[in-house]
Structure formats: C-alpha cells, structure tokens
Amino acid sequence: MVAEENSMEIYTEARRLDNECSVFQAELLGIQMAVDWIQQQSKDKISHAIHVDSQTALFAIGHTGIRGNERADYLAKIAAGYKSTIAYNSIPMSRAKQLLENYYTNIWNATYINSEDQQGTIFLCNCPEKSPQTARHLLTECSLYSRDRPRVLTTQTLPQILKFHINTVAVTNFISNIFRTLQE
Asked: What top-level branch of life does the organism fall under (predicted)?
C-alpha cells in the first residue's frame, strides 16, 4: 500500500500473503490497509482516493500511469520474497475446494490402483476411530484435529457451516491446517 500527497510518497506498507492466496485477495488486503491508514490520519483532510488495478480496471484503462499503484505492485513483489510472518493466510474457498478434490482424487487413484479387487476401496483416517476419511469426518469428528477445531464445527450442522461459517477466519485456518497436515 502506498500513500501519496502532492505527488510525494508519504507512507508505504507491505504485508506477505500465503502462497495459496489470489491476486484478488491481495487487492482486497491492499484496500483494507489503505482504509485502515486513512482512518488513522487526522480529520483535517476532506477526502482521500484509493487506486486499485482490479481486472476490470485493467481491461478498461490499462495498468500504466498510476504511480502509486505501480509502487504498491513493486512493494508487493518484494514482500512476496520476505521470510517473515505471513500477515494474511486465508485461502479462497474455490482454492480450498480444488485442493480437497485433488487430495481425495490422488488418494482414491493410489488406493484403487494398489487394491486387489479394485472395488469397495475406502481410505481410512489415521485417527484412533479409523473412520472413512471424508471431509465431514475431518471437519467435525476426527480426534486428530479436535484440539484446533473451531467450536462452530461441532455445534452447527454441516449445511449451516457451509452456508454461514465456511469463510470465517477460524474455519478457513482450520481447513488450511488440515490440508498442510494431509500433505506431509
């Protein structure tokens, strides 16, 4: 995020996003950072402008010529290489679904190919329950994840979770943790 006044750079801030985050999420985080910065400023200013190069804006006017945005893009590229703490790590739901589908497809294919009769193959979870490793089991039942499981996953039905809570930070972080653990 870059703030300018009278064509002079007066403030910059860069935060690192998780590798699974999208450009759209980076743009949203940049907007949030700009709004936060504006709110911290004195109320002497009458107005502020936030420039964003969303896909729609790129198509309409192109990417060049917005100096503050060019600088923000440069800082974002530098921040991507930081070895520091990640400031934002919620992955988009579309990416979570894709990762889950790929994970289970790979498991199914490996199990199916290695089974003798190649029918009725069920992948069992490594938890003490030895339940079929389904998304429902991992999200709501598996004892391996009980310590980190957000309370909402045990108090709401799966349809309610998917409709109202799936994009919350706690649930998204929990799902990300499951993905990391399963990939180890």
From this structure: Eukaryota
